[in-house]
Structures are given as C-alpha cells and as structure tokens.
UniProtKB/TrEMBL annotation, chains A, B:
Family assignment from sequence similarity: Belongs to the PurK/PurT family.
Purpose: Catalyzes the ATP-dependent conversion of 5-aminoimidazole ribonucleotide (AIR) and HCO(3)(-) to N5-carboxyaminoimidazole ribonucleotide (N5-CAIR). Catalyzes the ATP-dependent conversion of 5-aminoimidazole ribonucleotide (AIR) and HCO(3)- to N5-carboxyaminoimidazole ribonucleotide (N5-CAIR).
Organism of this sequence: Jannaschia seohaensis
Gene name as annotated: purK
Entry keyword Ligase: yes
Assembly notes: Homodimer.
A Pfam family recorded for this sequence: ATP-grasp
Pathways per UniProt: Purine metabolism; IMP biosynthesis via de novo pathway; 5-amino-1-(5-phospho-D-ribosyl)imidazole-4-carboxylate from 5-amino-1-(5-phospho-D-ribosyl)imidazole (N5-CAIR route): step 1/2
Entry EC no(s): 6.3.4.18
Protein name: N5-carboxyaminoimidazole ribonucleotide synthase
C-alpha cells in the first residue's frame, strides 16, 4: 500500500496487488504474486477460494462504494480475474488506482458485438455475425447467415452460457426467448480443423511474449483439454502469435490475454478474446519456468516479462464435477501435476481443478 | 477440521493441515497444500511469511496451552517446517492429532549426538565424533580426533550457528566459551570431494521416493547453490538413494527429509539429516512435476507419493541479504524461476528467496 501517488516504475516486493474476483484464476494469480514477494487483496462478494491464499479479502458487493474505497486504498494496482466486473465498480477504483489490463480491453471483451467489430477493424477474420437487437433482426440475420447459427447474448456469456444453437428445427422466436430477449448477436458456424488458443502477455513498456499455442477440446461449451504443441503448420503458428500481438498492441494492453482461434483451411478465425489469464493456459504452470499467472503479475507490476518457453509437451485436463472421483488415479499418475481449487462443494459442470501431464520431456 | 477421531485413511480435499513454524518452508508447504485443495493453519509466535498464503495463523507462544489446544482442534494433521519445536509443544498436540513426521525423527534430529549414534547404529558412516559435555572431555576429544575439528552444540544449530571451528590457534577453553558451555560434540573434519544431498519422501504405507541428488555449495555455513545432477558416479548415486531410504524406514518416517552427505574417495559420509523439506530441494519446484513441498503434503495427508522425476537440469541459487539488489537481472534471466519469500525486511545473512535456472531441458 502506498500513501503517495503511484510511481510509474515497477512495484517493489511487499507491494499489494488487488484482484477483482475470487475464483480459481484469482487464486492462482495470488499464488504467483506471493512467489514474487507481493501481497494480495481479493475483492469478491461471493465465495472466494482465492482468499484462502491471499493476504486479505474484501467481501462486499460490487457497488459498495465504501468497501471499494477501502480496497483501493489498500492496494498499489488493481487487476481482475473476471472480465464482467461492472463498469461502475471500475470507475470508482480507477479514480485512485491503476487498473491493469486497462478499460479499453474490458469494454471490448464485455460486449461480443464490440469485440467482433474491434477485431474486424484490425483486419482479422472473425465468424460472420449480425447485430440482433430484436426478433425481426434475428429473422433477417438467419436468412443471411443460414442455419445452423449461434445466437449469443452480447454481454455476460462464458463457458457456453448465454448461447443458443439454432438449427433447422429451432424457431427464431424460441431461440430469442431462450436468451430472454437480451441484446444479442447471431454468429455463423465456422467449419474448423481445430480450436487453438494463444496466451499472450504484454508489459508496460510494450514488449510482447506469447506462450506456444495450445490445442483445445471443448464439450458442452466447457474446455476439457488443452494440448501443447497444437498440431499447426509453421505458418499457422506464426500467424497465431502475430495476430495475438496485434490485438494486445492495439489495446495498449498490460497483462495476459487469452485469444481463442479456429484453425481453418483458409486461415485463422478469431473466436473470442479474454482479457485475463485463461483456462487454456493452465498447462504453462507445469511446462514453463514462468507460467501465465506469473507472467500476468509481472506485467501489471511493471516488471520485465519472463521467459515463457516450454520445456515439455503437455496435456492439461480440466477436472469438472464428478471428475473429482478420479483423484486417486490422478494422484498416482506419472509425470502429472495436479492442481485443485479449494472449492468446498463439487457440483456438476463446476471446475474443481486441473491436471497437467507432461508427455515429452 | 474433524470432530470425529481421525480415520487412518487419506485426507480429503478441504481438510486442514496445521504447520508449526511460519517461515519460507512453511510458506511453500502451505502453497503446495493449497494446490492439492487442502486448507492450512500456521502456528508461529513471530513473523510469519507463511501466514500470507495460509487460511489461518495462530500467533502464540510455543507453550501457550490454550492456543495449542485451539490449533489442534482446527486441524486434521500437524506437520512442521522447523525441527526445533519444543518437546512440550509436541506433547500437547500429539495428545489429539497425529504429528507427521513422527516424534522419533524429531528426537534424533534435535540432538546431534543422538543423530550420530542413530546413523552409526544403521551401519552408516558419519564424521568421527566425541561427546563433549565439559571442557575436560573436549581436551581429550581434541587429542583423539586432532585439529582442525568442529565443536557443535548438541541442540538448536542451523545454518552454521552453534558451531566453532577449532584449528591450531584455537584454545579449547576459548571454543567452549564461544558456544556458552552448551552440551556439545566434537566432530573431526571430513575431507570430501563434494557435498550432496538427497531429498527423500516416505508415505504412510512405507513407499519411498527420492529426488535426484543435488550438489551443494555452502559459504559461511549457509547454502548458496544446489546443482542437479550432482557430479556422482552411478554407484555413489545409488548409495545415496539407498542410504536415504534406509534412514527414513528405520524411523518409520512419514514426510520429506533432507539428508546431507559428503562424497569422499572412500564412500559417502552422512553429515546431517533434517526431518523436513530442505533448502537443497528447492530446485524441484522448477524441474519436477511434483516438488518436495507437494511430496511432503502428499505423504502427511496419506496420499500416494507423486512422480518426482526431473525433467530438466537445474541450478538453484539462494538469494541472501543484498542478493535482492540483483532482482532486475534475475527477473530478466532466461529459463529462470524466481521465488521470493515475502519477508518485510532484507537483512545480511537472511534468506530472502531463491532462483532456479533450468540449464538443460
């Protein structure tokens, strides 16, 4: 905590990093911060597994002005593990402490329509999309993009939530009702060879470092596995890394970002960006000297980015709900690093942990 | 925390591990416990960097019966990061909760004379030594072992503390005064090719796993670097691993132990054992899927031991006192994993962190 205005220089060990959101990403950020000698303060109204490994926990509503002021006063920089932090929360915090990554990235990532337009504006390829503020627009968009297509709310979607697939049997009105009439976009379905992601970091001085792209498998909208290396051509790998760098530079971004891509026969299509550490980057903890969590902390603390080269091939598997029953087997598996999130209750669909197996060393 | 008597089975995620001692070893144990979904409670009367990443901190004297009872009641198993926890503390805790590693190892490791006798009793080679309860015994021992020799207090020595080197110019009375007349032993000086250590783990079912031996360089009694692999012959490596296994089995040990050895032309000499995670095992965090801290937590939680194979060569360097001035260089070094301990104040001789460089991947 500093009483004086923040210096633009790097944070020194002992400084405090405020983290908005108390889930597993915040938890892993807090542990990475601790390894670099920083203190952490979690802001989270609900359950906070992150608080178990943090120095402090501000448990208050996102709009609690007094709590936000106290939180801001106790930290040197603010970051987040969750891109849907309300704008009014950020307004209050930003008045006294830097928020990294900055507001531009949040604005773009909080709204699927703005995100698509931003990415298109950079000359990148995205899935065909239409703005569908109402049922009439949806009907017109379906006629243009064809079926199947995916109706997605503009805001607050993650892990497949806020999405409806529209195939030949789905009525437009029915789909619109399923997302409760929220502002939405319609997305054409992209035929792809594989889903990949790039975890990219950008420091305060503009330097950019990418981890090797991982190949992702989803089921029911939730990430199941990430495999590195992804089966890409040299040119696809290079495109992925260049495009990720282009995105973070355009946003004057500071921190780690997850960029999800489709690899298709005609090039890479940007699916979405997440302005935070990303589930598909968890393998870095087992296979790199500096992982995505430390890389993010280094960036927002103004430190030089670390060496994120892989020293092993790896497969990261998410442990979701009943996957926890497999713990005895996973604990005994060779070359496997297990990471559980300290969540009190196992629920279907809930991310409880992950396991990374080193497949070639 | 359990209200019912402890089952002999493995702890489940959510269980609480009590850690006696709040320094950097406790801190790294707490982080490893968190990664396996356990909660931690630190017991430490003084400053406790470990408490920054733990669920709770009992800040009380080692002899505070009320605090100890509350601590015991809040945890499922007790472990320690420091072998000199007073016996009365352990007596109080042991009445209600298992202490792992057990008392036998602590008894041996708390007293250099008992330790030497125990190791000799196993048929292992130790430095020549004599029991020197008084000045007369010291004079006689010096005549037998010759000079130089090292006078060491039987209890409470670490990092070169409680030791006096006696060379030709040192008077026996002067040496005895330097250790304030404490019960002591005299040790002959061993001529060695290199100092190595084995980090060995033993689980509740008796299984034993060793990390690859590391080669240590000390200065002023403090570990400076550990390098893996150590420059050993195949037979020395095998001997090191076998003797470490023999020691933990003889003690019915549960947890991780550091075994310091001298490699000499005529075989391995056991220097000392530490019934806890060990500074010379810090490299495991950067070069193994399961590191010494997780291995210890697995053992004391009754879980299967993990795969501790190395996937890289590494050099771990301790950051002591002013070494912290080198942070900018260390943060920018390739292939390097930095770990700081969150200590508020840098002091000469104080261990502030460590850096592990992967030298071959």
């Amino acid at each position: 905590m500093t009483d004086t205005p923040l210096s633009p220089g790097p944070l020194s060990p002992g400084a405090t990093i405020g983290i908005l959101g108390g889930g597993q990403l915040g938890r892993m950020l807090a542990m990475a911060a601790a390894r670099l000698g920083f203190r952490t303060q979690i802001y989270e109204p609900g359950d906070a597994p992150a608080a178990q490994v943090a120095n402090g926990w501000t448990r208050a509503a996102w709009t609690d002005e007094q709590a936000l002021a106290a939180f801001a006063g106790s930290v040197d920089v603010v970051t987040y593990e969750w891109e849907n932090v309300p704008a009014e929360t950020l307004d209050l915090l930003e008045a006294s402490r830097p928020i990294r990554p900055g507001r531009a990235a949040l604005r773009v990532a909080q709204d699927r329509l703005d995100e698509k337009r931003f990415l298109e504006g950079l000359g990148l390829t995205v899935a065909p999309f239409r703005d569908v503020p109402d049922l009439g627009a949806l009907t017109a968009a379906l006629a243009e993009l064809g079926r199947p297509a995916i109706l997605k709310t503009r805001r607050l979607g993650y892990d497949g939530k806020g999405q409806v697939r529209i195939d030949d049997a789905t009525g437009a009105a029915e789909a619109f009702a399923a997302i409760e009439g929220a502002d939405a976009i319609l997305e054409g379905v992209v035929t792809f060879d594989r889903e990949i992601s790039v975890i990219v970091a950008r420091g305060v001085t503009g330097e950019t470092v990418c981890f090797d792209p991982g190949e992702n498998v989803h089921a029911e909208g939730i990430l199941r596995t990430t495999t590195v290396p992804a089966a890409l051509t040299a040119s696809q790998r290079q495109d992925a890394v260049l495009l990720a760098g282009r995105i973070v530079s355009a946003l004057d971004y500071v921190g780690v970002m997850g960029v999800e891509l489709f690899a298709t026969g005609t090039g890479l299509v940007v699916n979405e960006i997440a302005p935070r550490v990303h589930n598909s980057g968890h393998w870095t903890e087992a296979a790199c000297a500096v992982d995505q969590f430390e890389q993010h902390i280094r960036a927002i603390a103004g430190l030089p980015l670390g060496d994120g080269r892989r020293h092993a091939d790896a497969v990261m598997e998410n442990l979701i709900g009943d996957d926890m029953d497999r713990l005895p087997e996973l604990l005994a598996a060779p070359d496997t690093r297990l990471h559980l999130y300290g969540k009190a209750e196992t629920r279907p669909g809930r991310k409880m942990g992950h396991a990374t197996r080193l497949t070639r060393r």
